Amino acid sequence: MNIAIDGPAGAGKSTIAKKIAARLGYIYVDTGAMYRAMALYIVRLGIDPKDAEAISANCNNADISIEYEDGVQVVLLNGENVNQYLRTEEVGFMASTTSANPDVRKKLVALQQKLAASTDVVMDGRDICSVVLPNAQVKVYLTASSGVRAKRRYDELMLKGEQCDLAKIEEDIIARDYQDMHREHSPLKKTEDATEIDSSYMTIDEVVDAIIEMKNKVIQ
Questions:
Q1: pTM value?
Q2: What is the CATH number of the domain that holds 98?
Q3: pLDDT for 102-157, tens place per residue?
């Protein structure tokens, strides 16, 4: 069973996907962590982030997968648990570069599809329904108004003690939506066979229940 969730930034995709996976006992595929693992692989090879040719030439030698050990997600790079290395500044910087590389995207999509073919997964992102899991049994386009998404982000930052401007956050979200929808490779879009869920006035549990109900109908 594959559950694919697409949608704009701040719609709550990762939160929802993780809760669904926990409720159903599925694997939540953290695609962002997979891109960071690829970045770590490129960093370890000593490749310059600007050397797109070298990145393309070497990315196919990385095998990246996700497993769970004692309820904790483990990212494996060529069989090694690399969780502790994924959040460094160097890896984050490399990931922002390598994730835009078409060959890296192609390789990681293939690895994500391989994972989804062998186990029950929940996956979220910008192009999961359209590119990564086009044959998923459950496809959701999760969205919310830009104002609601901005307020969620604002509240999150305020809880961390960070001062921020709500209007500026919404402005950034609208700009990111445009960028995601108009990027050259795998733009954000709602596929015809995806069910749109607007979470603006729904609780997290209500959204989770709605998607699990969709899954149950497929099984019936």
A1: 0.82
A2: 3.40.50.300
A3: 999 999 999 999 999 999 999 998 889 999 999 999 999 999 999 999 999 899 88
Q: Alpha carbon 72 to chain centroid distance? A: 18
Report d(CA 49, CA 84) in Å as an integer. 21
CA torsion sign for 112, 45, 95, 72 is positive
The string of pLDDT tens digits covering residues 81-99 is 999 999 888 998 898 888 8
Task: Tell me if 129 sits within 8 A of 141, measured CB to CB.
Answer: yes
**Do residues 13 and 38 share a domain?**
no
Distance, CA of 56 to CA of 87 (rounded, Å) = 23
Q: Which of 119, 147, 178 is the last residue of a domain?
A: 119
CA distance linking residue 156 with residue 9, whole number of Å: 14
